[in-house]
């Protein structure tokens, strides 16, 4: 049977009588939605779920325990039949139809004269989705997508727009100008301030925009952490920013999978750094940010992992602040957290490590300035962001400062991506094993007792490359001679 084309309708049920026949969990869900719309609900059922019972006791709903009576239909606007008794559902439906009262029989489109859509609520905004009963699973999928796409602050934005509506109409009597004003209101600084949980400033800014002479739209920058590479590990807020961006300035480390989620027609600029290649200097990145934002564009500055963890996000914000450019920050899942998760290595563990340190060892300078004695202490986990060239130094220094040569490590290459590899062993084997397996950047090193769990807790990608090193390999790759100098600066921006 082809699905009926439905006429979409938002009904005002406040203080209007609605009858729900049935007192189980399905009825309970329907009643909850009806109460949300302030309907006067009567529930007809011999027994109620505990929650329905509480509502009845509190006087929020009326309860009739006796068998269904036809005359109750006289005074109601809508009926919902949600019993497990098909005969009763059919009876209620046919009696309602006779009286031209809209009726919904749960999960029975043929008996229903109205259906309840799936909704995404951002009160006072409601998005309703229906397939007319044709494809409920597709509706569910769409609902989840929209739920992810629509920022929770949209409701507050709609409320603010409603409050200013009359004044906006007075100020911009011409429809074209009014539309421009609304576009700026919904996509510009006012919407940003609401996302930043600053409603008073949002209101003031909107009011100022109403009194000030009209000006060019203000650009802004959102500093977004892209996470470790798997697009599933991008935040919802990051996804929304990518959907709204006019310009995306991204590091090389940001995966193609994440970039594929961004608005198709956004201008994309790669500003990654890679040894031996031309790359934008930090000053050039700043200049690009400033130039695009001043041109009124919505810029997303997209960085691998989290922008505030070895990402120079702080410097970029200082620069933007100094130049009066509005910005937001969306955190990302940093490599240490993601790699640990994807390698099955808990960063802390009551039996093994009470603290974790995020360390960068990207170049000679950062290796020279590390506090080796502190790093060599036991019962702590080191999460070391690095180009793999420094591994031999790191191994030697940690052992020289007292960390046991038998301390386990897990070296995670391309963490969270399908091509992830994990190499495990003891500190004494670190550089040798990395060379044996030709580990390349990006790789994150975890050193500490917890790394021993990688073998037992592995769940993602290929099993860890552990075990004893073959004697032949040991002869071929003496620990100190295994570095590849070209990879020293292979990180993004640390
Ligand atoms: N801001 C980033 C780190 C930038 S420094 C973050 O929060 O993750 C770059 C270093 O991060 C790389 O050299 C590597 O050590 C680490 N890294 C980033 N992504 C990684 C990944 N998917 N797998 C392993 N290491 C990664």
**Rg for CA atoms:** 30 Å
Strand percentage lies at 15-25%
Q: Within the CATH hierarchy, at the fold level, what is the topology of the largest domain?
A: Methyltransferase, Cobalt-precorrin-4 Transmethylase, Domain 2
Count of helical stretches: 19
| Shape verdict | globular
Overall average residue pLDDT: 90
What is the H level of CATH, i.e. the homologous superfamily of the largest domain? Tetrapyrrole methylase, C-terminal domain
Bound molecules: S-adenosyl-L-homocysteine
Distance linking N and C termini: 61 Å
Share of residues in helices: 25-40%
The CATH architecture term of the largest domain is 2-Layer Sandwich
Largest sheet: 5 strands, parallel
- Judged by helices, strands and strand pairing, the structural class is alpha/beta
Q: Briefly, what CATH class of the largest domain? A: Alpha Beta
Counted up, domains total: 3
> How do the strands of the widest beta sheet line up side by side?
3-2-1-4-5
Regions with pLDDT < 50 over 5+ consecutive residues? 468-494
Could you tell me the number of beta strands?
A: 17
């Amino acid at each position: 049977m082809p699905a009926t084309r439905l006429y979409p309708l938002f009904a005002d049920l406040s203080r209007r009588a609605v009858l729900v026949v049935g007192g189980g969990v399905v009825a309970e869900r329907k009643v909850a939605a009806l109460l949300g719309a302030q309907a006067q609900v009567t529930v007809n059922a011999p027994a109620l779920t505990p929650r329905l019972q509480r509502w009845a006791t509190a006087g929020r709903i009326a309860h009739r325990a006796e068998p269904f009576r036809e005359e109750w239909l006289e005074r109601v606007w809508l009926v919902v039949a949600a019993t497990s008794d098909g005969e009763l559902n059919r009876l209620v439906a046919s009696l309602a139809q006779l009286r031209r009262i809209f009726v919904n029989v749960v999960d029975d489109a043929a008996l229903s004269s109205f259906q309840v859509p799936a909704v995404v609520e951002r009160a006072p905004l409601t998005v309703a989705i229906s397939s007319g009963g044709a494809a409920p699973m597709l509706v569910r999928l769409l609902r989840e997508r929209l739920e992810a796409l629509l920022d929770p602050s949209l409701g507050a934005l709609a409320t603010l727009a409603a409050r200013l509506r009359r004044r906006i109409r007075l100020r911009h009597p011409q429809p074209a100008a009014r539309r421009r004003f609304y576009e700026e209101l919904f996509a510009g600084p006012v919407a940003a301030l609401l996302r930043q949980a600053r409603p008073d400033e949002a209101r003031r800014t909107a009011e100022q925009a109403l009194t000030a002479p009209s000006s060019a739209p203000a650009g802004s920058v959102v500093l977004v952490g892209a996470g470790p590479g798997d697009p599933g590990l991008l935040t919802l807020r990051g996804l929304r920013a990518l959907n709204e961006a006019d310009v995306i300035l991204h590091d090389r480390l940001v995966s193609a999978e994440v970039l594929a989620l961004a608005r198709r027609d956004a201008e994309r600029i790669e500003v990654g750094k890679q040894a031996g290649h031309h790359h934008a200097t930090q000053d050039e990145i700043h200049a690009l940010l400033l130039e695009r934002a001043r041109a009124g564009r919505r810029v997303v500055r997209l960085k691998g992992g989290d922008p505030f963890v070895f990402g120079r996000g702080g410097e970029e914000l200082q620069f933007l602040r100094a130049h009066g450019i509005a910005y937001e920050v969306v955190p990302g899942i940093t490599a240490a957290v993601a790699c640990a998760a994807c390698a099955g290595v808990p960063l802390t563990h009551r039996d093994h490590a009470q603290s974790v340190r995020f360390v960068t060892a990207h170049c000679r300078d950062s290796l020279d300035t590390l506090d080796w004695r502190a790093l060599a202490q036991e019962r702590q986990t080191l999460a070391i962001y690095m180009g793999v060239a420094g591994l031999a130094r790191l191994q030697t220094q940690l052992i020289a400062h007292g960390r046991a040569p038998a301390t386990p490590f897990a070296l995670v290459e391309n963490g969270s991506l399908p091509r992830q590899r994990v190499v495990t062993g003891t500190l004494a084997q670190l550089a040798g094993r990395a060379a044996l397996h030709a580990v390349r950047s990006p790789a994150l090193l975890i050193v500490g007792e917890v790394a021993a769990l990688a073998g037992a807790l592995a769940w993602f990608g290929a099993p860890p490359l552990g075990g004893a090193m073959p004697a032949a390999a040991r002869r071929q790759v003496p620990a100190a001679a295994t570095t590849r100098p070209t990879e020293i600066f292979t990180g993004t921006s640390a």
